[in-house]
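<backbone_tokenisation>
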Amino acid sequence: MAKRESLGVEVEVGSGNVFADLGFPDAEERKTKVLLAIQIQQILEERRLTQAGAARILGVNQPKVSALVNGRLEGFSVERLMTFLTALGRDVQITVGPRRSAQAAGRISVALTRNRNWQPGPRRGVA
């Protein structure tokens, strides 16, 4: 990571992936899971679904939905999160292309299409 000076304080510029910056070996997967989970949470909030209602649609129990919306993603694969998105009526596209630099490893990225007016709302209770 590059360092620069800002207002007399040395600042380290991040890579765009906090998990990579912290040295996690599975940084790309972690970032992908977070971006997919954010999209799922946005849909649940847009539809004003309770965790119980979301669980019925996703085919899981309410504690799994609670873990998901609270960012506890250890028990979820990227594939499972994509399946949740399709259950919620979203299309998921995977695009494979050449890497950008011959020296760099390939990378994973998620591009989200979202409602420009969406703002995270208060957490809804379990019903």
Q: What stands out?
A: Residues 123-127 have pLDDT under 50 and may be disordered. Helices lie at 18-21, 27-46, 51-58, 62-69, 78-87. The radius of gyration is 17 Å.
